[in-house]
Amino acid sequence: MKGSRVGDVSNPISIGRRSWLVRLLLVYFVCRLGAAQPPPISDEPRRFLEVRRCQIELRAARTQLKRTQELFEQGLMSRTDLDRAQTAVETAQLNYQEAVLSLLSLQLRLSVRHIIKYQTKDGRKFVRLADESLGDSGAH
Hints:
Blueprint: H1 12-33, H2 43-73, H3 79-104, E1 112-119, E2 125-131, E3 135-137
Antiparallel strand pairs: 1-2, 2-3
């Protein structure tokens, strides 16, 4: 190996280094083109978790309101504390409803104008529907 050059074809190490370099460059360019990027994470799981979080907060606010009402009836809490607990429940309810609406906005909705069910002579069954946004399309 003494006196051998990296670019020397007769040197087996130089061939190995070249193929390693080619592989490295190939991986680099594939990554730069975006082929190796992971697909974007759907917004649906995040919104579902938000709905769940709001459910938990609503349950906690209702529990706190119940405790506050009991203490208010015993004269241990002020009317202001009771009002705050009721406001917390209403706010948690609104947050929950907002999270549900946000989740439902991801759902595909279809407004069907009419549906026709039919069967061909060879026995295959189909359904044709017309939607406001799609016009007359044959969804089979």
